[in-house]
């Protein structure tokens, strides 16, 4: 790992929060993700299962976690399972965790090797009434590959058909949506690295630079600050390309007179930042660009003002949409008649703002959280990212910050990152 060691209390607290939700007489078993082949004998870079990481902090393949709070043997109430270090494999692929290293990361004292697990696990399961197993219940999931969690669930159902199987995912969705102060500290580090990167870009962007050169500056600043890498594929979209929400080609020239939309964030310690800023390529907004930018910033601040514990995403989006319609009338994009006669199923503002305003953020960029119609909990972290996309003017503007939603008052975790048109122009002028 590139990042500095995290406080194991993060993961100790997370496990305690999960076991407190388990039914009596239950065992819970979590698996790491698979190593996925690319071509030939190569593998894609390993990406840990987010739930397993949230519970342990372990970012190594072939890892398992067993939680059995009612185990009669106290030392087996939480067990971390690792692949046994192999001298030959380490010569090729590098160091694998030893017991003491895994304990330092996770706070788990009992470490067993994967090849010795079966003989231990069977009597534990015989002592349990319920078996919690994990699955990916992220509502955005679109994966038909039979990943390890699903294969393992099928295997255990075959071996132990008379046990009661329970879903871990609903508990994790509830728990992971509420961030502890320790988790916020790690997210803030990812955000601070992202801020340094954005400030670097403001001194680098100029007419004639290519999008991929800006992308290279992002990678440089991320890695020199110990980020794991990108939280997601960075979007560096100048001119009309900014209207493509997931534009990742990043291979075109940034031209004088365009604005460039940059959506990027650092990944650090298993947690993510998610920033969007839109800046003038030549360092100076035109009057029309500034008018649209200021309208987008107004929507951003309006949305931040609405975002409170207890509101649902559905109600929140509806209210932001109403305000967006008003702003688009002021910008000359819509008329009052367009608003009055709109189809409620397809509001008029959707022509110029065709995505959601917020999503949960944490171990996953699109993190777990309540459904669209359930209240946002106290302690959630959400993005706020309205945009305005005008095909006729070949322009797209989006502004995004990350907000810790608190009943005591929201915390804008990106409050130190320049956001107004004046701030951006002043820094680019330097």
Automatic annotation (TrEMBL):
UniProt xrefs under Pfam families: AMP_N, Peptidase_M24
PANTHER family: XAA-PRO AMINOPEPTIDASE 3
Source organism (scientific name): Chitinophaga caseinilytica
EC main group: hydrolase
Domain Aminopeptidase P N-terminal: 6-142
Protein name: Xaa-Pro aminopeptidase
Domain of life: Bacteria
Cofactor(s) in the UniProt record: Mn(2+)
Family membership noted in the UniProt record: Belongs to the peptidase M24B family.
InterPro entries per record: Aminopep_P_N (IPR007865), Creatin/AminoP/Spt16_N (IPR029149), Creatinase/aminopeptidase-like (IPR036005), Pept_M24 (IPR000994), Peptidase_M24B_aminopep-P_CS (IPR001131), X-Pro_dipept-like (IPR052433)
Catalysed transformations (reactions): Release of any N-terminal amino acid, including proline, that is linked to proline, even from a dipeptide or tripeptide
Organism classification: Bacteria, Pseudomonadati, Bacteroidota, Chitinophagia, Chitinophagales
């Amino acid at each position: 790992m590139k990042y500095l060691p995290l406080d194991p209390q993060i993961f100790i607290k997370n496990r305690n929060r999960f076991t407190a939700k388990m039914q009596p007489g239950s065992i819970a078993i979590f698996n790491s993700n698979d190593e996925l082949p690319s071509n030939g004998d190569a593998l894609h870079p390993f990406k840990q299962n987010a739930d397993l990481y949230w519970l342990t902090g372990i970012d190594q393949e072939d890892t398992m976690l067993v939680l059995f709070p009612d185990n009669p043997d106290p030392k087996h109430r939480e067990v971390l399972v690792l692949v046994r270090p192999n001298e030959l494999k380490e010569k090729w692929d590098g160091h694998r965790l030893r017991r003491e290293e895994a304990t330092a990361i996770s706070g788990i004292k009992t470490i067993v090797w994967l090849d010795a697990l079966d003989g231990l696990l069977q009597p534990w399961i015989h002592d349990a009434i319920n078996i919690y197993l994990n699955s990916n219940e992220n509502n955005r999931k679109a994966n038909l590959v039979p990943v390890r969690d699903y294969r393992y669930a099928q295997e255990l159902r075959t071996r132990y058909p008379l046990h009661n199987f329970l879903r871990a995912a609903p508990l994790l969705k509830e728990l992971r949506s509420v961030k502890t102060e320790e988790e916020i500290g790690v997210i803030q580090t990812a955000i601070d690295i992202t801020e340094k990167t954005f400030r670097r870009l403001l001194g680098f962007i100029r007419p004639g630079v290519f999008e991929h050169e800006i992308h290279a500056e992002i990678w440089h600043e991320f890695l020199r600050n110990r980020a794991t890498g990108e939280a997601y594929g960075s979007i560096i979209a100048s001119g009309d390309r900014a209207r493509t929400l997931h534009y990742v080609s990043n291979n075109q020239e940034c031209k004088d007179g365009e604005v460039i939309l940059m959506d990027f964030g650092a990944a650090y310690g298993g947690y993510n930042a998610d920033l969007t800023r839109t800046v003038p390529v030549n360092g100076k907004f035109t009057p029309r660009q500034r008018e649209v930018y200021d309208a987008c910033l107004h929507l951003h601040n309006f949305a931040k003002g609405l975002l409170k514990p207890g509101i649902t995403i559905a109600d929140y989006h509806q209210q932001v949409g109403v305000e967006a319609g008003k702003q688009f009338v002021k910008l000359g994009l819509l008329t009052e008649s367009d608003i009055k006669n709109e189809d409620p199923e397809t509001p008029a503002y959707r022509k110029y703002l065709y995505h959601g305003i917020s999503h949960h953020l944490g171990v996953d960029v699109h993190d777990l959280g309540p459904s669209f119609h359930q209240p946002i909990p106290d302690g959630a972290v959400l993005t706020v990212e309205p945009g305005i996309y005008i095909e006729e003017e070949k322009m797209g503007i989006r502004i995004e910050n990350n907000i810790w939603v608190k009943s005591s008052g929201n915390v804008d975790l990106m409050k130190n990152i320049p956001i107004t048109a004046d701030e951006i122009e002043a820094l680019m002028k330097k």
